[in-house]
Write a structure and sequence with these properties.
With about 290 residues, the chain is of the alpha/beta class. The chain has a single domain, classed as Rossmann fold. The chain is built from 9 helices and 12 strands. A 7-stranded mixed beta sheet has the order 4-3-2-5-6-12-9, sandwiched between helices. It has a 3-stranded antiparallel beta sheet with strand order 1-7-8. Strands 10-11 form a two-stranded antiparallel sheet. Strand 5, helix 7 and strand 6 form a beta-alpha-beta unit. The longest helix has 20 residues.
């Protein structure tokens, strides 16, 4: 998930890509431990309930349909609850993430829940060199693109990993939201950050996006925004046909203090909808 810092923390910075990646990796290594014990992830509940499917996956299956028997790659999978949810829906799934502690956690959850999946440690840009197969579906979901400096290169990776005629799917936070001041308690929508891809934005913030008592020791992260047009054209330029583009008036987490969680588990402005798209999704097909 993207950071939610104030406008001062959004100042542009120049720094080496490897340094930025190392900072982000250290932060996500810390988050793996924090998320394992967070009630927001409820790992114990997922393990004990063999029928449970993650909320995000329930939304995405509306676009992806029946995945039974299909080979499925989940990029930037973190601790793997969404990954294993797709296994429970019948797919043969591989999860990939650059954080070794996150992949260790995913493998342990897979073992404890008796939900078999393959998990691989790799930077997403290096995934085609690590994986020796192409998949029916290549998937990524909320909170992933903001950690990537180059959306066009990412789309090329997705293309290389998708079989001809196969499907690529991304659902993520909307770039409009990523450019807003997310700390405003009054619900006012104020643009304070860049909309288009460019310089990294540096954040230094404690904690994470879900409740947890585990401290985050490495608090500095670097993020990038990508305009919706840049994302769509990255898919097209990589060799995909866009089949669906959707925008959603709700968030997967409390992106702003004024949002209220609904009975369905999604977060919205109180008493209204449609003020801003909090998420988008793209479903695309690789040319056969």
């Amino acid at each position: 998930m993207p950071s939610t810092g104030d406008s001062e923390s959004r100042r542009p910075v120049w720094s080496g890509r490897e340094y930025q990646r190392s900072a982000n990796l250290a932060n996500w290594n810390d988050r793996a431990a924090a998320h394992l014990v967070s009630p927001g992830y409820d790992v114990d509940g997922f393990v004990s309930d063999s029928q449970r499917v993650a909320k995000a996956v329930e939304l995405d299956r509306e676009e992806l349909g029946d995945v039974g028997g299909l080979s499925f790659l989940h990029l930037q999978c973190h601790i793997g609850l969404d990954t294993l949810s797709w296994v429970r829906l019948g797919a043969e799934v591989t999860g990939l993430d650059f954080s070794p502690p996150a992949i260790d956690a995913a493998r342990e959850i897979s073992r404890q829940s008796q939900t078999p999946a393959k998990f691989v440690v790799s930077d997403v840009y290096e995934a085609p060199e690590i994986l020796d197969e192409k998949f029916d579906i290549v998937y990524a979901s909320e909170g992933v693109l903001c950690w990537l400096p180059d959306i066009a290169a990412w789309a090329q990776v997705v293309h290389r990993l998708t079989r001809p005629g196969g499907t690529a799917y991304i659902r993520d936070g909307h770039p409009v939201v990523h450019s807003l001041d997310l700390d405003r308690p009054d619900g006012r929508l104020e643009l304070v950050g860049p909309y288009f891809e460019g310089q990294a934005m540096r954040y230094d913030e404690p904690g994470t996006y879900v409740e947890s008592d585990v401290p985050i020791d490495h608090t500095v992260t670097y993020e990038w925004n990508h305009g919706l047009g840049e994302i769509v054209n990255a898919f097209i330029d990589a060799g995909f046909r866009i089949d669906s583009l959707r925008e959603y008036p709700f968030s997967g987490y409390r992106a702003m203090p004024s949002l209220i969680e609904g009975a369905d588990g999604w977060w919205r402005f109180p008493g209204e909808s449609g003020r801003v798209p909090f998420m988008f999704s793209i479903r695309a097909t690789r040319s056969a």
